[in-house]
Amino acid sequence: PGIFRWMWRLTYVSVLGTFVYIGYEIYQDRNPEPQVPRDPSKKTLVILGTGWGSVSLLKKLDTENYNVVVISPRNYFLFTPLLPSCTTGLIEHRSIMEPIRSICRSKKGPVTFYEAEASSVDVNRKIVKIRDSSDIRGDSSETEVPYDMLVVGVGAENATFGIPGVRENSCFLKEIGDAQQIRKKIMDCVETAAFKDQPEAEIDRLLHMVVVGGGPTGVEFAGELRDFFEDDIRKLIPDIADRFRVTLIEALPNVLPSFSKQLIEYTESTFKEEEIAIHTKTMVKKVTDKTVEAEASKPDGTKERVVFPYGLLVWATGNTLRPLVRDMMASIPAQKDSRRGLAVNEYLVVQGTRDVWAVGDCAVAGYAPTAQVASQEGTFLARLFNNMAKTAELEERIQTLSSSLNLKPGVNSASVTREIEEAERKLQRIKDIKPFHYSHQGSLAYIGSEKAVADVSWFNGNVASGGTMTYYFWRSAYLSMVFSTRNRLLVLNDWVKSKVFGRDISRE
Ligand code: FAD
Ligand code: NAI
Questions:
Q1: Sign of the C-alpha dihedral computed for residues 380, 381, 384 and 386 taken in this order
Q2: Which end of the chain is more exposed for a tag (fewer CB within 10 A), N or C?
């Protein structure tokens, strides 16, 4: 009985502690401390973008050392790993959006935010041209923002490889608007298929959901879609449930090429159980408003033309350059051999420029375009800039002390010399900042039916696991990674709500 009493007390204290901690965090968010006043003599640091790279930088940056200006057409940070869950309403979209204004306001030093798109960067004049195209204005307005230091974190666009019909007919899955569009379109297909006296072939077409691209985005979306139908649509609209089909088309010989072999096999066998049809070695060549036309490679090496009629088409074939990045690369001679983004050195400085850094999907530093890489790069830059500010402060102090030693007779020269030596030692330590090094924590992907796959780094090795336990690990890992307490509670609430009441299938 004694041990149980102690266990009960321990549980009670930890639960109470968690509530107090959450309460304190919420109080702090709602009542931020006053910010230090703006100092125009400080250097202007302009950050482009409010994605993983830029926001990770902002979160760790000592903003009182710079005049920080953030520019992005999106006034929120988006937690992309949970975006596929928004397409079916498992998670509401606002639960994974974090207002950039709250992040800016939580900083010690003031941060200016402009909701605008950077249209060009002049690295010689150190100017960024920005364009505000808000609906309220009617037309667009352009202005210039000068910088001393610039960080480009504008991410990437959806690749279509110029395949005809893709832009006009597909949905992408990169932004909140994309997830909302998919959610509406799924229900449009379902309600139209359930409409009175529909021809059989039309019902089959409308209920055929095609996903192009077997990378993590395509696989996670296909899994979420299948869950939605099994958990909710089948119960609410049983008449059409058996006609529903999901097809995943991939040009390479297997899906999830970046995962280990056993997890690829596990994913493919799970998809088979979930009745998600996988067409590998199948390259999409053309898209019309109702069909996807592809070329499949047969085992004997011959090619076959395949046509997939579809109701919903989601295009997830990876990234390409944003026009801003393409223009910057064209204007900087040292970037002429780079193809996939702004080539950076080991300190993430854009090659061929001064005082310009790049992070995330728009930078080429030798790593995959993932949130994990972008956030580590952002955090690295914050450390670098915090150190640079301390360096400038120390150098100034050394200069003042040295001149007091030379100019003012009667100062205690021994103590001043000691102070100078101490400052120089500190300066040396700070200047010794190591180049950026990416530490891979592992890859995770949801594959439907409450199963996930994970390639996790463990003591310099790799552990591959798949299944329901991995799914719980996936959920808890992502929940802990969500940036704010508010969003964490919202996501948790959505998961519970969907489990208890089912997803909300009403179409806005
Ligand atoms: P982004 O996060 O895309 O941010 C770019 C920012 O720049 C945005 O705020 C945008 O509005 C802004 N911007 C765009 N153009 C301009 C302009 N001209 N001027 C100023 N600002 C501009 N990675 C993982 O590691 N794990 C995952 O589980 C994972 N899941 C994903 C799921 C989905 C559905 C998707 C699409 C991606 C996922 N990723 C994941 C990849 C990850 O989201 C990206 O690698 C990451 O977002 C890159 O960060 P970034 O800062 O470079 O760009
Ligand atoms: P991706 O680049 O990883 O995969 C795209 C796939 O589309 C490729 O396998 C390619 O062979 C295929 N493809 C290209 N053209 C095609 C065509 N015409 N026909 C058929 N198939 C075609 O892209 P994705 O999945 O959007 O991911 C982008 C980045 O984001 C990656 O770095 C990925 O690791 C990361 N990400 C990570 C997630 C996770 O860790 N859970 C989730 C989502 C994205």
A1: negative
A2: N
What long-range pairs does 472-478 form, CB within 8 A, spacing at least 24?
A: 473/444, 474/444, 474/445, 474/446, 477/444, 478/81, 478/82, 478/444
pLDDT tens-digit profile of 315-336? 999 999 999 999 999 999 999 9
Burial class of 435 by CB neighbour count within 10 A (0 to 12, 13 to 18, 19+): exposed
> pLDDT tens, 384-418?
999 999 888 888 888 888 887 766 666 677 888 88
Whether ligand 1 lies within 6 angstroms of the CB of 360 is answered as yes
Average pLDDT over residues 125-137: 92
Contact between 431 and 463 under an 8 Å Cβ cutoff? The reply is no
The SS3 call for residue 250 is coil
Ligand 1 binding pocket mutation candidate from 225, 370, 441, 481 (most atoms within 8 A of CB): 370
Sequence-distant (6+) residues with CB within 8 A of 398 are: 420, 423, 424, 427
- Shortest-distance Cα residue to atom 14 of ligand 1: 154
Residue 207 · residue 193 · CB < 8 Å? yes
Q: ipTM higher than 0.95?
A: yes
Summary count for the chain: helices (H), strands (E):
16, 24
CA 383 to chain centre: 21
**Residue 421 vs residue 184, higher pLDDT:** 184
pLDDT at 135: 85
Q: Which residues pair with 142 in a beta bridge?
A: 131
Tell me which residue has tokens 């000691």.
Answer: 418
Question: In the 8-state DSSP scheme, what is residue 344?
Answer: B
Distance from Cα 465 to the centre of ligand 2, integer Å: 21
The ligand 1 atom nearest the CA atom of 54: 51
**For ligand 1, is residue 374 a contact (CB within 6 Å)?**
yes
Would you say 151 and 359 are in contact if contact means Cβ atoms under 8 Å apart? Answer: yes
Helices (H), 61-109: 83-86, 100-105
Could you give the angle at the alpha carbon of 196 between the alpha carbons of 195 and 197, nearest 5°? 120
Minimum-distance ligand to the CA of 445? 2
Q: Which ligand is nearest to the CA of 315?
A: 2
Ligand 1 and 154: CB distance under 6 A: yes
Whether the CB-CB separation of 235 and 197 falls below 8 Å is answered with no
> Using an 8 Å Cβ cutoff, are 259 and 466 in contact?
no
Compute, in angstroms, the gap from residue 485 CA to the centroid of ligand 1.
21
Q: Is 425 helix (H, G, I), strand (E, B) or coil?
A: helix
Q: How does 58-69 read in b/e, with b if 16+ C-beta sit within 10 Å?
A: bbbbbbbbbbbb
Residue 411 makes CB contacts below 8 A (sequence gap 6+) with 404, 405
